[in-house]
Amino acid sequence: MSPENQPSTIARAVDLLRRGEVVALPTETVYGLAGDGFNPQALARIFAVKQRPLFDPLILHVLSLADAERLLATSVPPAARALAERFWPGPLTLILPKRPEVPDLATSGLPSVAVRVPAHPLSRALLEAFGGPLAAPSANRFGRISPTTAEAVRQELGDAVPLILDGGPCRVGLESTIVDCNGAKPLILRAGGLSIEEIESVVGPVDHATPVSEKPLAPGHLEHHYAPRKPLRLVDSLEALPPGDYRTTGLLAFDRVPEYAFAAVEVLSPGGDLIEAAAHFFAMLRALDDSAAQQLIAIRPPQRGLGVAINERLSRAQIR
Fold first, then answer.
1. Of the candidates 284, 273, 272, 293, the residue with the CA atom closest to the CA atom of residue 313
2. Quick one: 232-317 is in which CATH superfamily?
3. Where does residue 210 fall: left (phi above 0), alpha (psi -120 to 50 degrees), or beta otherwise?
4. Model-level pTM greater than 0.85?
5. Domain 3-208 class?
6. Tens digit of each residue's pLDDT (9 = 90 or more) over 238-249
7. By the 8 A CB rule, do 23 and 41 touch?
8. CA triplet 42, 12, 145: central angle to 5 degrees?
9. Domain parsing of the chain, residue ranges
């Protein structure tokens, strides 16, 4: 979107949102499918377009910590406040007790709400113009690869979305890290664009929840998610890849390319940079899924930093 067209496009997006429609918008994590967070019609539209089960709650996006507090039944706990003050705006979602006014459809009937303050300038401009919270799960069919470009949203959802705001490729490339702050100790429900090390640098050691098969406590917490259409197998390292005929296989490599011939190869970061790898992850997985390869192999990146979030998504993507 060019700067001269931005105000009129934002105005059109606001008009659609106020009429209960959905709009695709960029965030620093992935592209979201946004709707009025307090309009049950809009929330139902999000679930319908994504083909998302109603038991999977949504994240409400707001402009500031003060806006987030207006959604809550209690004051913000010290650990949650420390995280918000350090990492908002950014790829952090907090789970906190909700006010009765927050629609049950947004929280799947849970007593808590997932809330985030995004950093992308276009999503912030839309939030400011709209003047209220926006529910915005990833703009893809439920359980599939999250989109990190406007074109990926078009491929996924097509005419089901009346407006796609194009803010370029997403900088972080992984969904937000979700932290449940309802207990005595913060609990990471989903690893994401904020590393566990960064979280623990603020609040000390945290627990890490296991994905579930049904009735999740937070978005993206189901054990099968982020899946390509093609079968996916994981390998711990290039050295663990046995010799064979890979000419019908697509490879998602971390930093190096093997000697064998593959149908298609994507390298997340030739320099071995986990931040770069995260930014490329979904786009490269999508490219391999769209290639001529019949099946896919992914090499796990190192289990540290954002590699934890990448590996979590790979593990859940291979579950059938």
1. 284
2. Threonylcarbamoyl-AMP synthase, C-terminal domain (3.40.50.11030)
3. beta
4. yes
5. alpha beta
6. 888 888 899 999
7. no
8. 55
9. 3-208, 232-317
